[in-house]
Amino acid sequence: MEKWHLMAIVVLIGLTVRWTVSLNSYSGAGKPPMFGDYEAQRHWQEITFNLPVKQWYFNSSDNNLQYWGLDYPPLTAYHSLLCAYVAKFINPDWIALHTSRGYESQAHKLFMRTTVLIADLLIYIPAVVLYCCCLKEISTKKKIANALCILLYPGLILIDYGHFQNIYNSVSLGFALWGVLGVSCDCDLLGSLAFCLAINYKQMELYHALPFFCFLLGKCFKKGLRGKGFVLLVKLACIVVASFVLCWLPFFTEREQTLQVLRRLFPVDRGLFEDKVANIWCSFNVFLKIKDILPRHIQLIMSFCFTFLSLLPACIKLILQPSSKGFKFTLVSCALSFFLFSFQVHEKSILLVSLPVCLVLSEIPFMSTWFLLVSTFSMLPLLLKDELLMPSVVTTMAFFIACVTSFSIFEKTSEEELQLKSFSISVRKYLPCFTFLSRIIQYLFLISVITMVLLTLMTVTLDPPQKLPDLFSVLVCFVSCLNFLFFLVYFNIIIMWDSKGGRNQKKIS
Amino acid sequence: MPSHPHIATSEWTLDYPPFFAWFEYILSHVAKYFDQEMLNVHNLNYSSSRTLLFQRFSVIFMDVLFVYAVRECCKCIDGKKVGKELTEKPKFILSVLLLWNFGLLIVDHIHFQYNGFLFGLMLLSIARLFQKRHMEGAFLFAVLLHFKHIYLYVAPAYGVYLLRSYCFTANKPDGSIRWKSFSFVRLISLGLVVFLVSALSLGPFLALNQLPQVFSRLFPFKRGLCHAYWAPNFWALYNALDKVLSVIGLKLKFLDPNNIPKASMTSGLVQQFQHTVLPSVTPLATLICTLIAILPSIFCLWFKPQGPRGFLRCLTLCALSSFMFGWHVHEKAILLAILPMSLLSVGKAGDASIFLILTTTGHYSLFPLLFTAPGLPIKILLMLLFTIYSISSLKTLFRRSFTLVAQAGVQWHDLS
């Protein structure tokens, strides 16, 4: 079958799955007085449409910041404004100032879902399709299968279309993907422009900022800092500054404006973590209540140190040996370090790690599939809160089946396939009997999957004991955190033991 | 239980043959584990999330039979030597065309009915006929008839084929009938099978003297020529023509406005009414039209039988003719023609092109079944998916065959 027909079918399948998931309920449905984050998005349209720009981020009688105040960068606000114009055209009641609080109707729900689908279709899906088409060294059929698996990734679908909290994740991830695409294909300027747009859309994309910086810096060094490299550096700096200025233009007029926006974007007084997240600090909190023991600034310094210590090796290597493959893996490990050790991490930030893992799906299918399953599982408490059990189970199974048939992952578990060959050779210099690495990993996979399934069943069927009402959520977070730590170590090993940027790797067919 | 056909308590009373009633009875016993409330006879329009869950799951569960039938059909397809890839084999294409059939998905799982396993029964009986297990095929079809009597549309094809190709065990060298090879035994056994199945299903009602009531529920001729949603058949055109003529007639003062009945055909209600300009159509007239339409294919099946493939063609034509000229046809009846046609489409290029036209228009005609706003993207996306896949895969399948044949310089002939 022709390539474009197959690709069209894959995109249509992705769209169908997204729309059918969106037919479920959403967070905060019918729950006054705060409703859920669906209401947040509607409220932002109301605010941006009715109030002048200067008042968007400030607390005022018209704009009560306690009731879902804007806490994303300006590009989100502009996007909400655009949606508000469309909303006004259809039904002005939806965004009327003050009176539209808690507005819920079938038509409005349809409108919001449609905006998400359109944003997805315009930004994220083309990026995925183009990325898969630009993959090197694999057959057309594998490229299309790759696109199918990425589009079927359950985490993003469930959060954007089912959960509705901080929707439009696909927009920021899509921009970041355009950035990766540009930078990998040597269109550095366009790539960095796209990534700046991503950061200006959601500040969480800063998790990816360091690898971009290191990769581009490494490229400049490679080109020679006296000649072309310096020119490239200057051009990149100009692009970055120009894009930031453009996005923040209305807010640069007064110092107070900029500071207020920054205060809304980075709420440092919220604490080390909120709710239950598959993070080191939350898991550690089970044993030792560090959130209460240590003062706020010590917590800040501690998380800062741990984060940077864990991501430094990979970044330094990327500066010294910039390669496309190293860049993608560094994206993964950086984002994962941030997720595990950073301050005030949300559960859905795992999506920032999942996107780079999707990108390396074709290189290490087995580990990537495992990681993506764990990442969906780690969001289980959030999904159950929104009654999304059925869609999550179905989409996870569909994704798993798609990956297994496209990549035959269970046959690709040898050391070489897992890219651990150089590592195990080095270890075997000291421990000659270290030959069972792949078998260990297979057993770990089995244990991990069984634990996840058991925990899911327990959470759904049993009631937690009276004294520990959060038992199951904490268990889910703890298990996910252990898995993530393992993956952190694994990805760092791949990066550090990767020689010559992967050019002498066996051709993957 | 025996009093079921009697009760006319609501608009949704049982109007399917007895086997379907027994099926629903078994379902109701399972249902009480899900939700007691839905079994209360007076609880009309009852719906809770658990009811919905139970009904959807029951449809999915019964579709297992449909999957099995598709598998059996794929076994009957001649695997061509072209194309080593799995996705290009005719078996794979056929299974996707059947399992992901847009019409079936919409009707069964969104609109909600149990057509999946019924079509499974039909496909299974066709597969058995292909595999020369005629008795099983006949038995399955008889059972099917007593599940849903709409399959009477294709009964002539079955009857003639079984008579001609099974009861007459051999043909003369030129293909015409050899009267001496008539096997009385086979005829009797076929008759016995049909009789036993019918006895099993209608027997209890015969004993209770309720047969006339059952038949009046099964064949409600009072419901009118066209369903509330017009099926896109000949009578729809006929009605439209009548309407146009009456409007013209009124304008040109040929007709007296007082003589025209006020009830409009397009009011969306199920009722009987008269045509204004053209002659009114009676059930007998539709029957005669249908019989005339299926006569050519029946003749072909009798005088020039071409084995199971010929039977399949006749079956499709019978379904289509009954759809076009039948009384009170539902839109969903187009599936009766589309699904058997899928089996033919992977065999010959000519069949494939006809299939594409039939399936695209047939599926498009099912659009009004989903009329809610959220349903709009779903039906468009699914329709696009199915259409793109069917066109692309069939084109690839037959382009390759043509190229190979052209290269080998061999005459293209049917592989049946």
Automatic annotation (TrEMBL), chain A:
Function: Dolichyl pyrophosphate Man9GlcNAc2 alpha-1,3-glucosyltransferase that operates in the biosynthetic pathway of dolichol-linked oligosaccharides, the glycan precursors employed in protein asparagine (N)-glycosylation. The assembly of dolichol-linked oligosaccharides begins on the cytosolic side of the endoplasmic reticulum membrane and finishes in its lumen. The sequential addition of sugars to dolichol pyrophosphate produces dolichol-linked oligosaccharides containing fourteen sugars, including two GlcNAcs, nine mannoses and three glucoses.
Name of the protein described by the UniProt record: Alpha-1,3-glucosyltransferase
Domain of life: Eukaryota
Species per Swiss-Prot/TrEMBL record: Pongo abelii (Sumatran orangutan)
Family membership: Belongs to the ALG6/ALG8 glucosyltransferase family.
GO cellular component: endoplasmic reticulum membrane
Assigned EC number: 2.4.1.-
Taxonomic classification: Eukaryota, Metazoa, Chordata, Craniata, Vertebrata
UniProt-annotated location(s): Endoplasmic reticulum membrane
From TrEMBL, chain B:
Protein name (database record): Alpha-1,3-glucosyltransferase
Lineage: Eukaryota, Metazoa, Chordata, Craniata, Vertebrata
Documented EC number(s): 2.4.1.-
Enzyme's top EC category: transferase
Primary subcellular site in the record, as a coarse category: endoplasmic reticulum
Organism in which the protein naturally occurs: Pongo abelii (Sumatran orangutan)
Family that this chain belongs to: Belongs to the ALG6/ALG8 glucosyltransferase family.
Any one biological process term the GO annotation gives: protein N-linked glycosylation
Keywords for this protein: Endoplasmic reticulum, Glycosyltransferase, Membrane, Transferase, Transmembrane, Transmembrane helix
Membrane-spanning intervals of the chain: 53-70, 91-107, 137-163, 183-208, 284-304, 310-327, 334-358, 364-391
Molecular function in Gene Ontology: dolichyl pyrophosphate Glc1Man9GlcNAc2 alpha-1,3-glucosyltransferase activity
